[in-house]
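Structure, all two chains, one model.
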Amino acid sequence: MNSSLTRRDFLRVSGTALVGAGALLTVGCGEEGGNGSLNLVFWDNLFELTDRPKSQWFITKAIEKFEDKYPDIEVDRVSQSPDITTYYNQFRAAGMSKQGPDVATLFAGGPAQSFSDFLEPLDQYFNSEELSQLSGWETVRKNFSPNGEIIAAPYGAGSYFEVMYNKELFGKAGIDNVTPPKTWEDFLQFAQEIKATGATPVVIGEQEGYAGAWIMATLVGGQIGTDGFFKMRRRELPINDQSMITGYENYRKLYELGLTNEDAGSKTNEQGQQMFIQGEGTMLIQGGWFNQPVVDAMGDNVGNFPIPTLAGAPHAGGIAGGPNVALGVTNYSEYKEEAVKFIKFLLQPEIIDMYVNIHGTEPSNNKNADLNAIDNPLLKSQAEWLKAGNTIYPFDNIMPQDINDLFYRMNATVFTGKTSPEAAVDRLQQEYSASA
Amino acid sequence: MKAAPNKETLKLKLLRGDQSFAYFAIAPAASLILSVMVYPIAYVIYLSFTPSDGIVIHEFVGLDNYVGLLEDSAFWRVMLNNLIFLLSVPLILTASLLCAVLMYEGIWGQKVFRILFFIPSVISTVVIGILFRTLFAYDGPVNRLLAPLGVPKIDWIASGGTAMTVIIIALVWGSFGYGMLILLAGMANIDPNVYDAARLDGANWFQRVRYITLPLILKVMGFLSVINVIYTFASLFGFIFVMTSGGPGYATTTLDYFIYLKMFSGSDLGSGAALAVILFFIIMVLTAVQLRIFGTGADVD
């Protein structure tokens, strides 16, 4: 009797629980109602500024301006993870189910390439005049082919790698007027002269191998140009090419010659940045993303010059770096025309200038950019270099993520002499061949 | 008119009812186990036979992922690393045993020491990692302590061998307190009369430990060894992530960290899943071997 009652109770409770669970699941699938205007869904993982109120963000202001201009279009900005892997998986999953955004921010280069199956080719929407107004298209062409379809629009001129220096420490080392070394060899000589004064020439945290990626982009890119890296991606040029070996041989001289802090191999990049801010070394090899923090911390006491290329390199004077941000339209969007309209609005010179001014991380990629929009002195000088010099799109912006990961590891071990340049490039080539 | 059911039929009906109810009652637990344990494991095994990136599952490729791993020099390097990290197990067992015996003998201040020794076990792996990274930094306290002895500064984390040494020290420091408590619990089950009898027979401290304590806690030691071996293979991720990121190169990369790299950095879920399956079998074999060793040994009366 008791058993029968218990069973019934059990069934009753289970039934209620199942109904409850079902109801809870249904709640998660609701849809947002519209207000009559067309809703563009915009996935953004790159424009968020966590240290400021949302009203001060560039993207908030840009969307407001767009909606003022086009009152029949409402942009629903959906904040997404800046973590490349998380976003990568979400975007792919959304693409598979065709339930993703109309417009999305993407990492230009290799990551955008991996999304090409879900992106609308933009060639038909941009005329030649519009294309000529912007730089960076080569980074968003399918398979990096010069005639490949445009899969996204590059946004901003990108982060460029640089040598930052401490003006006060340079003064103490007897360097009052900085003449940037023109070649890597000159740079090493320059660093040795600083070392002779008792200062640490370059502070570096190379445990992760990031600085190696920036230096290699310049040293190898100076020899083979961006096209050489694209050829590597397309497997037309092996990664164990002599240019890579030469690049590694010269990169590791920094450590071999004792021109860095002795613990460079075990310090992280972030620790290297802190050491520079604290005045533990005269120079730091970094990129545009550190412009704002370093100026905030050191004010006018910091200057910069480009990482020099190797003497006699065919692409001598090339500035390594390039577009990080791209904007794409999904090929399953119902509102492709409106999505392109939104992207074109964001690409207007004054809107990019606003982005440059608020973010302070990269110059504009629009030819009609207003250089006065740049407040950050380091970014200002970077913008000047870009006007004068050729750019080199880095190896790790072009290659797949697993190769990049191995590349960073190899950098760190080559730097400290644990791996030879030849062994490192052979390992990279072997890994890339295996993934064919 | 329907005939009244006989006693046997009623019993059978009740039994059947009870059986159905029993199945129904275990259904939630069973479905939970099936959905959160059996299904994921089966899915990982399935993934290991495909070149999946996690979103698109491509065609079945048989053992290609496994063959690819076995041909990868990085895989063998990582396996070797894990074997080296196994050195931490006897160190943890020795430190745990030593402390447990001292606590059991009731040394002066044992209550305070018991708490102090256990504290590392409740500290996050990340914190321990950062702590040891700082201690062994180039300008850190360890190098400063060694300097007066004429030892030149060592960049501990920059070299594979020294970085591994630091990780092993951190691992032992973080684990021995837990081991000590487990062994103490095992010792609490030993009949004190055995020790009294041994004392009467003239056994000294070492002999009591060697001939009474150790044999009687051998099974507990076995348990401790098993969980530490599993930990060494499957849970070093936190230490590696914080202290060395698996570098320099792959010099301190462990199997669990390699799985992470394959799956999340390289989006190669197929190879990552194959690695996870290999890791699963390695742990299974090592556990079986240990259980056999300690199980037989524990029969000593």
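The interface with chain A takes residues 17-18, 21, 24-25, 28, 53-56, 68, 72-73, 137-139, 153, 155-160, 244-251, 261-262, 264-268 of chain B (CB under 8 Å).
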